[in-house]
């Protein structure tokens, strides 16, 4: 059983889900409840990492496409549309829309940095048909 847990990529052998600065300072029933909720937080955080990895895989493809056809890294028109959609979705989901916007902008600025790195390392062809 512990072998199975050690092989779980979402936890790993070095991860201690019970690590806390509160250990020994709070009631054990409270700690138990806290750990139960933290289990869900850990699952959500793992999912976020997987989702972001998939998103960056997709944007990497866009980066190669943009470098190949010498398109600008950023697309402000697309971003404006993404932001207004995400703000609306956030409102519907009771998430602070300002946070949703900040989060998307944070991700997009990283994507643009990646696009620029791809474009900087991309040797343009000499106009041959591709
Ligand atoms: O769709 C694109 O053109 C992308 O480069 C992807 C993306 C994004 O991360 O969603 C990143 C930069 C652009 O400004 C707009 C959108």
UniProtKB/TrEMBL annotation:
One of its GO terms (molecular function) is chorismate mutase activity. SUPFAM superfamilies: Chorismate mutase II. Keywords: Isomerase. Pfam families: CM_2. PROSITE patterns: CHORISMATE_MUT_2. Residues 1-21 are annotated as: Disordered. The keyword Protein transport does not apply. It is an enzyme of class 5 (isomerase). Residues 28-119 form the Chorismate mutase domain. Its EC number is 5.4.99.5. Residues 1-10 have a biased composition (Polar residues). PANTHER family: CHORISMATE MUTASE. This is Chorismate mutase. It comes from Arthrobacter halodurans.
């Amino acid at each position: 059983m512990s072998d199975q847990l050690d092989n779980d990529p979402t936890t790993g052998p070095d991860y201690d889900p019970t690590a806390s600065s509160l250990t020994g300072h709070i009631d054990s029933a409270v700690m138990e409840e806290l750990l139960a909720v933290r289990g869900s937080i850990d699952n959500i955080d793992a999912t976020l990492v997987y989702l972001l990895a998939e998103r960056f895989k997709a944007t990497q493809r866009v980066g190669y496409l943009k470098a190949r056809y010498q398109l600008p890294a950023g697309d402000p028109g697309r971003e404006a549309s993404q932001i207004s959609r995400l703000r609306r979705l956030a409102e519907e989901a009771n998430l602070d829309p300002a946070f949703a916007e900040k989060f998307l902008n944070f991700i997009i600025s990283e994507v643009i940095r990646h696009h620029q790195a791809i474009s900087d390392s991309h040797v343009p062809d000499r106009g041959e048909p591709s």
